[in-house]
Design a protein that fits this description.
Layout (H helix, E strand, L loop, with lengths): L1 H9 L4 H27 L6 E3 L5 H7 L20 E3 L8 H4 L8 H28 L1 H21 L3 H15 L2 H10 L7 H26 L2 H6 L2 H10 L7 H6 L3 H14 L6 H15 L10 H6 L5 H27 L7 H26 L2 H20 L5 H29 L5 H23 L8 H18 L13 H6 L19 H4 L23 H7 L1
Antiparallel strand pairs: 1-2
Main location: membrane
Keywords: Membrane, Transmembrane, Transmembrane helix
Organism: Trichonephila inaurata madagascariensis
Length: 553
Amino acid sequence: MGFNSALTDAGEFGLYQRLLCFVFLLTAIAYLSLSYWIQIFILMVPNHRCRDGDDPLTAATNGSKCGTGNFSANGSGNCPQGWEYDFSTLFPTAATENDWVCENAWRVYVVHTFYWVGSILGQLFFGCLTDRLGRKKTFCWVVLLSVLSNMGTIMAPDHMTFTAARFLTAFGISTISTTSFMIVMEYTGPRNRTIVLCTWAASWTSCAAMLPWIAYALNNWRWLLCIPFLPASILLFVSWWVPESASWLMTKGQVTKAAELLHRVAEVNGKNLSSQYFYDRLVSSTLESNGTKPEKKESFVQTSLGLVKYPNMRKKTFVLLISWMIIHLCYNGNSLQTSNLPFNTYVSFSVGAFLEIPVNMFCILSLDKFGRKWPDVICLYIGGVLGIISGCISQNAEHEIFAMAMLVRITFAAGTNITFQYTAELFPTEVRGRGLSLQRMFGAIGSCLAPTVVFLAEIDRLLPMLVLGCLSLIAGSLIIILPETTGHQLPHTLEEGEKFGAHENFCSIFSSKQKDETDDCSAKFGRDNLAADVPEGTQGVFILTAKETEAKL
């Protein structure tokens, strides 16, 4: 029982955990959400025309988008006197201020691409740093880095500096959600972790829904970039109070510090238990679970390579990583494509964000009843079909295009949430943390490719939706290969992971009576605890820690 038994004594969701959840996590995810959506908003381009002469009215009504009227063979030209922008539909952005349009439109997509490259590298670097320095120290560093790089964005004098600043912003901010999520989850009991996940989803979608109107009120991209400074300041202020993960301290052998933190939790929760009490509990459980000499720990690379050591694990890992990369590409591509819709930008983003709220709640609360695989497949297939239909609609049918885009967003959001949980249940406990880190890297790669797909709008405004629809169908087809996890014991070791779903063929995937191949070796393992190293998005997955597993044996 070990740490989780001691946490139960301290209180699984008392005042201490509520403060962590509703103050710390809520603010951290608000900071993440604002930073993510601002990245999209500050690079939007409104309708524009080439300035022809000194009369803005003439330019706005008669001018061409990318030429003065002296067109070349391919219909393009240049605008020596610059462009006129329709700011009635969108505020002045970094793209309009620097005229990143027409032959310079690629600059916008370069910034987006480098933003996601920074996210990939940041997840890798700070993900490792979290295990070395701890959750709290890493969290403080990433907040500070992202704040400074945001300031650099505001003062950037040219495209290269602007791109570098956005790269560093993503490099730092990419792990804020993971570290804050882990700190709160590692202090919360299993029965209350759905509350943590609902808080995460509510904070993300609420900020996404409000941001368009904040941008509308400020009407300036530099002032908009200052908005995340508010939650960042709160995070830096409360960081002195936010604890290091006691679970992480246990893995480092720092039992005394872990006991002191649990005593602090108990004290705030109104329980009169001393540090010595928790120290004795933790030490005794450690001695019981480590009765034999511990096995030599494998390195990060060695453990990750275990995911492809066995053929069935290799197949599942490949399917999970590729499908997640495509799903992330579709979700982020659809978010970027919103700016290309023939509709009010502020309304489009707000409606899309509000629609994600019921989707998030449905995915969190209903998957145990409906399963993981088929809802995931159905959502991705529906999104794919709707995306293809959207790409074939006449560009004059503005309301139909908007409605289809919102429906596509719902299905992509649902597919994203379901796959979050599905992946965590398919990776064995032994490599679950590493597998999820690898998955998040592939997701960032998909996000990095999304601007390239959206850039196709320069050819045809609806072409990106057609491509995203086809990709969604591919992802749904890949998910069919995976076994269902609902009602099955979670695999613990790589060997158990290899057996899970190994005998499932194309006919049996439609059967709800699939035999659980892991029952003979994992029936003794419970599902009453969420591993301490499960990062962002692993919604409602209950597993045992290594020490609890040994105790059950």
